[in-house]
Design goal:
Blueprint lengths: L2 H17 L3 H9 L5 H8 L6 E3 L22 E8 L2 E8 L10 H17 L3 E5 L10 H17 L5 E5 L2 E3 L4 H5 L2 E5 L4 E3 L3 H8 L5 H5 L1 H8 L4 E3 L2 H13 L39 H8 L6 E3 L7 E8 L2 E8 L10 H16 L4 E7 L6 H6 L1 H14 L4 E10 H6 L9 E4 L4 E3 L3 H8 L1 H5 L3 H18 L4 H5 L5 E2 L5 H11 L18
Parallel strand pairs: 3-4, 4-5, 5-7, 6-8, 7-9, 12-13, 13-14, 14-15, 14-16, 15-17
Antiparallel strand pairs: 1-2, 2-3, 10-11, 11-12
């Protein structure tokens, strides 16, 4: 062959690979409101930054008619590129080729790019759109999945792992996204489940749709498997770029300080009277967060799951910070099973990737009831306690109002080694609220009173308890609160403390690993 003919051959192969499963299948993908794998990659990455791996790979299966069909790339696009000028590794399953089904060659391509990401310490992004294992390749397909799972575990805590579910993800395939750090799902076009509606109907006689069983809303609101619900694929890709803005490329590497036009010394005048004096009156903690972070930019994680606690990323003074906050606007900000697990997972991610933690506390305690106790609130609540206690990143805690009982301890108290603990003047730090405490401590005295005398004496006891115990000053006297601050000082104080803690180092006892309650 001449040089010209060789160049033509390469061009033909590149063109064939770019077509995926062919124009008809591409059209079908578009008709469903979905981009192709290659379109997704190009839209997610910075323009012109994509470098593709293994574009011409094909399978070697000769069973069950597979020898008759070969697609260049074998149904998955892999490579490296940049997002916000930061290098990332990526793979995207191509549903136009055998429905994105995973075979041996397909899996090897994914494993290869995951190994590249780990060896070069850059984030890995997986775009899932697959019907599952390639049945014709049998156990080789299953082996391929297991190789991917193993790499997910190796990468965990070393490089950020992000999964975008942009179509079906079923059977054993779901366990790779489940082990990654963040899962995005697209409303109405993506779903995840271990066993599908047909199998469920056969085994348990339940009738359920794919959407109700494993759709984006289900996994964002009910199961907590997904962290972000996206309205369409463009929204999914854009929010992935937004998430990476707050993350480092690898562990033990701090996120670079961002340019920041928001004045560090800006006063939070809105907060002066924001937190109600009446401890039973709710308020929206999200508004407080937006008031203190840079440019009111807060990316909430798991926003639809366990709404009684808020988790998310922001910058303060240009530095990335992970925020955990009780939400008085939902279940009074109480801790329960779901909120404990949600926050614990988020804290462990931030700690693994050197992102400082800001904890905003307004918590009346743990949710009572048989549902919680039978469900294991003791075990699951301990996960949150464990996560805070094991974290070694800079930690700042601000008590905005209530901090009662064991929940006070768990929410990054000084006793589990938060670095700086602050409180507003109206903070209530006690074993329980004043009325509950009076009912227990003075029950014998109050038993002998009735009517106006009862009400007057109880009011006096409640006021005395609030003045002497249910306030931040006793904790401050003991050194459990480092500073009581005015609400309007919040932003400036926190940024100053974050910068003072920038070089924090903690040395732990040597061990293989701890044994967190699972």
């Amino acid at each position: 062959m001449t040089t010209s003919e060789k160049r033509d051959l390469l061009e033909q192969k590149r063109h064939a690979a770019n077509l995926g499963g062919g124009e008809a299948r591409v059209k079908r993908q578009h008709d469903q409101g979905k981009y192709t794998a290659r379109e997704r990659v190009n839209r997610l990455l910075d323009a012109g930054s994509f470098i593709e791996f293994d574009k011409l790979v094909t399978h070697k299966c000769h069973d069950l008619g597979m020898e008759k069909t070969h697609y260049l790339g074998d149904g998955v696009v892999t490579g490296i590129g940049e997002i916000n000028n930061q290098q990332v590794a990526i793979y995207a399953q191509d549903f136009t080729c055998w429905g994105g089904a995973l075979g041996a060659a397909h899996a090897k391509k994914i494993c290869k790019v995951m190994d590249f990401a780990l060896n070069n310490r850059i984030p890995i992004i997986g775009i899932n759109d697959s019907g599952g294992a390639r049945i014709q390749e049998g156990v080789e397909s299953l082996a391929g999945y297991a190789e991917i799972f193993y790499r997910n575990v190796k990468c965990s805590g070393v490089i950020p792992q992000i999964s975008l579910i942009m179509g079906p993800c079923a059977g054993g395939a779901v366990y790779s996204p489940a082990m990654t750090d963040f899962v995005f799902m697209v409303d109405q076009t993506s779903y995840m489940f271990v066993t599908g509606p047909d199998v469920i109907k056969t085994v348990t006689h339940e009738e359920v749709t794919k959407e109700d069983l494993g759709g984006a809303k289900t996994h964002n609101e009910k199961s907590g498997v997904a962290h972000f619900l996206c309205i369409d694929e463009d929204d999914c890709l854009e929010r992935t770029r937004e998430l990476l803005y707050f993350l480092p490329k690898t562990n033990f590497t701090k996120v670079k300080r961002k340019e920041n036009s928001d004045n560090i010394k800006r006063e939070n005048l809105k907060l002066k009277e924001f937190v109600p004096a009446n401890s039973k009156k709710p308020y929206d903690m999200s508004e407080l967060i937006l008031e203190i972070v840079d440019n009111k930019h807060f990316l909430e994680v798991h926003s639809m799951f366990a709404k009684n606690i808020i988790c998310g990323f922001a910058t303060m003074g240009g530095d990335s910070v992970g925020i955990i906050a009780n939400q008085p606007n939902f279940l009074a900000g109480v801790l329960d099973i779901d909120s404990s697990m949600k926050a614990a997972r988020f804290i462990r991610f931030c700690d693994a990737f050197e992102i400082p933690l800001l904890t905003l506390v307004d918590v009346p305690g743990f949710l009572p009831g048989t549902v919680q106790e039978y469900g294991g609130i003791i075990k699951h609540g301990s996960k949150l306690l464990y996560a805070f206690s094991e974290a070694t990143v800079p930690m700042i805690t601000l008590i905005t109002r209530k901090a009662y009982g064991g929940a006070y301890d768990v929410m990054a108290s000084k006793h589990i080694r938060s670095d700086v603990n602050l409180a507003y003047p109206n903070a209530e730090i006690a074993v329980m609220g004043a009325e509950g405490a009076v009912n227990i401590i003075f029950r014998n005295e109050l038993k002998g009173l009735e009517g106006e005398a009862f009400n007057k004496r109880k009011a006096e006891l409640i006021k005395d308890y609030e003045d002497n115990f249910n306030n931040p000053y006793k904790a401050a006297e003991l050194g459990y609160i480092d500073e009581i601050i005015y609400p309007e000082e919040t932003r400036t104080k926190i940024i100053n403390y974050l910068r003072a803690l920038a070089s924090k180092k903690v040395f732990r006892p040597k061990r293989k690993h701890g044994n967190i309650q699972l």
